[in-house]
Write a structure and sequence with these properties.
Number of helices: 10
Shape: elongated
Strand content: 5-15%
CATH class: Mainly Alpha
Radius of gyration: 39 Å
Low-confidence stretches: 1-47
């Protein structure tokens, strides 16, 4: 009999040890399968903006001009976007590109305007005639010193130059394109900042959910320990509850880490010093966006998108550049002249001047001219193709955003119902375990389902809000109307 009891105890402790080794792996694997975001947040990073609406890498950075303060800064969505519109590197670079394009326009304009220069020349000379090979009997070898004063203004003007005129018009269209691109960059900043802000909100909700799961797991663990000590539950229940509790602690640590990293990313986008502490003061509530007609929305986007208008200006610039290349064959007419006073001194001077007109006709430059024409034509065809592609991309952006909104809206409703069902299932499992009707396996599974339901709800809310913000960007109204799509407190 004693031997039989020892065998049972041996098998019991061997089983417990085996469970202790295998259960964490099995539980973690099952948990990862049931809730993909448990070990690492499943939300996109701030730079994984839906569809093809992403900006360049410059929109991920900023310039920092403020000093950090010791106070915790309350940061609303409005504040974040306004800071982004002021300090975001993508917008700063876009504005610099506009200045550069304006400089090119002024340079091309100068080629059409008269160039006037003024000069004052004071000259003193002494000439050695012998050094020049001149030896004249009775004539001095050294002449001088002597000098003169020359005050003069000169003018150069290309009166007829069709190529220069076309190049100026091309530069003018490029300047207009740069200004429109800078306006479009403001929409990109709004989208990028809004996405980063929404992501931090989702991270905070994920932390709250993880903390609630830790508290629930702790209650289950304490109950399992008490039951085991009382002899009403096996050690396996305690081990299972302990694994669940530690798993939830890991999830909380991961969520907190991701929250801090995404706050750093937000600060980088809007130009906040990285050692400045701040807290978000806005939330992103769920608000359905219905009755969006794709055809009407696409039409609105084609009318509003500044990047499309910028590409149209680039196409016009390419057309003018093509005309300028062709115009290299045309003759040019230019005028140059000068007038001034020259004499030993200004008081003993006399006015002199010079004027000339030039007609220049290219004769043997056909190779260069044809090469310039071919290059300009290739640029023109490239811009036409890019414009056609951009029109299609805008239509795709709008339609994709509308589909994302509809899908996310359904996901939010389903996830909300799942959360309520998971709460009810967890409560039922806890009551059954407390009554001794079943072991805590059902409690463990219900806790995992609850964590998964919370994760899916947070993710679906984020996806719904970012889809609405992406639609505002696709329509070209992100900066002006983001509040209508995302809202705030």
């Amino acid at each position: 009999m004693n031997r039989f009891v020892r065998i049972i105890q041996y098998n019991r402790w061997w089983s417990a040890a085996l469970c202790l080794l295998l259960l964490p792996c099995g539980a973690m694997a099952a948990f990862a399968q049931e809730q993909p975001g448990s070990s690492a947040p499943s939300l996109p990073s701030p730079y994984q903006i839906p569809s093809a609406q992403q900006g360049g890498s410059g929109f991920q950075g900023s310039i920092v001009q403020e000093k950090p303060s010791s106070a915790v800064l309350p940061l609303s969505l409005d504040d974040a976007i306004q800071r982004g519109l002021k300090y975001n590197l993508g917008l700063v670079l876009s504005n610099q590109n506009t200045q550069s394009a304006n400089g090119s326009r002024l340079q091309e304009l100068q080629a059409l305007l008269p160039t006037v220069n003024a000069s004052l020349k004071e000259s003193v000379q002494q000439v050695n005639l012998a050094a020049q090979g001149l030896r004249i009997p009775g004539f001095p070898t050294i002449i001088g010193p002597f000098g003169y004063t020359d005050l003069r203004a000169s003018l150069n003007w290309s009166l007829v130059n069709v190529a220069s005129l076309q190049n100026y018009l091309a530069a003018k269209h490029n300047f207009q394109s740069a200004k429109l691109s800078a306006q479009d960059a403001r929409d990109m900043v709004t989208l990028t900042v809004g996405n980063a802000y929404l992501l931090v909100i989702a991270d905070k909700a994920r932390i709250d959910s993880a903390q609630a799961q830790v508290s629930t797991s702790k209650v289950s663990l304490d109950q399992a320990i008490q039951n085991h000590q009382a002899g009403t539950a096996p050690l396996l229940d305690e081990l299972r509850a302990r694994v669940d509790y530690q798993t939830q602690q890991q999830n909380l640590i991961t969520a907190q880490n991701q929250y801090e990293k995404d706050k750093i990313a937000l600060a980088r986008i809007i130009g906040l010093p990285l050692d400045q502490k701040f807290e978000l003061s806005d939330t992103a509530p769920y608000a359905a966006l219905d009755n969006v007609d794709p055809e009407t929305a696409v039409k609105q986007a084609l009318e509003n998108r500044n990047d499309l208008k910028a590409m149209q200006e680039q196409l016009r610039a390419a057309e003018k550049a093509r005309s300028a290349a062709t115009a290299e064959r045309y003759p040019t007419v230019s005028f140059s002249g000068d007038y001034g006073d020259i004499g030993p001194t200004l008081g003993h001077s006399h006015g002199t001047g010079n004027a000339s007109g030039t007609l220049s006709v290219p004769v043997l430059e056909e190779g260069k001219i044809r090469g310039d024409i071919h290059q300009a034509q290739a640029q023109l065809e490239s811009k036409r193709a890019q414009l056609s592609d951009l029109e299609g991309q805008i239509s795709a952006d709008v339609r994709d955003s509308i589909l994302d909104i509809k899908a996310a809206q359904k996901q939010v409703e389903v996830a909300r119902n799942n959360v309520e069902l998971a709460k009810e299932a967890l409560s039922e499992a806890q009551q059954r375990y407390a009554a001794g009707i079943s072991d805590n396996l059902a409690v463990s599974q219900a806790q995992q389902s609850m964590a998964q339901a919370d994760d899916q709800y947070v993710s679906s809310l984020y996806q719904h809000n970012i889809a609405k913000l992406s639609l505002a960007r696709a329509l070209g109204v992100a900066e002006k109307s983001y509040k209508s799509y995302v809202g705030g407190k």
